[in-house]
Write a structure and sequence with these properties.
alpha+beta; 22% helix; 172 residues; five-stranded mixed β-sheet; Metallo-beta-lactamase, Chain A
């Protein structure tokens, strides 16, 4: 909420983490803060989503503090935001081709990798069959749950960069 109510800027990006042109360009991206406090409210502690009775929110920090994802049990649909992506967000080619494959959160704007890993592990337990991410095309089918489990089980090899300013120590 601090990023959406004008109280804080996002931590500086890490332009040299994850490789790719999109990562190199990240210092040019807006870090806010923005103030849309007249249009946002905090979510209820019980995981419910007001006006969307079938949906529940799931805490998925890592890409940002306070990041949440949304899950609908009825059809096992998961909206992950930037908890992970379905394209390599750091790569201009990955973004341009939109080839669906699971990757971690956008590396250049992920200030807490341990929390990001724990969030992907939490999402893997939902056994989704359809998912949408903030970066990349939606993915659906019986293979989705296994794909998310593989990302969770191999997060350090697939998603966590080998080096970078937030890889070992989260942003303060």
């Amino acid at each position: 909420m601090a990023y959406l109510t004008g109280k804080e800027k996002y931590p500086p990006p890490d332009a040299f983490v994850g490789g790719g042109l999109m990562a190199l360009m990240s210092p040019l991206y807006s870090r806010g803060p923005i103030d849309i406090s007249d249009r946002v409210t905090t979510l209820p502690e019980d995981g419910s989503v007001p006006t969307l009775r079938e949906w529940r929110w799931v805490a998925t920090p890592g890409h940002t503090p306070g990041h949440v994802s949304f899950f609908r049990e009825r059809d096992r649909t998961l909206i992950v935001g930037d908890a992970f992506t379905t394209v390599k967000a750091e790569s201009l080619m990955g973004v341009a081709t939109q080839k669906a494959e699971l990757h971690g959160p956008p590396a250049y704007y992920t200030p807490d990798w341990d929390a990001a890993k724990a969030s992907v592990e939490r999402l893997a337990g939902l056994d989704a069959v359809a998912l949408a991410a903030g970066h990349g095309p939606p993915v659906a089918g019986p293979q989705v749950a296994a794909m998310v489990r593989e990302l969770a089980e191999n997060f350090d090899a697939i998603a966590r960069p080998a080096s970078g300013k937030y890889v070992r120590d989260p942003a303060a």
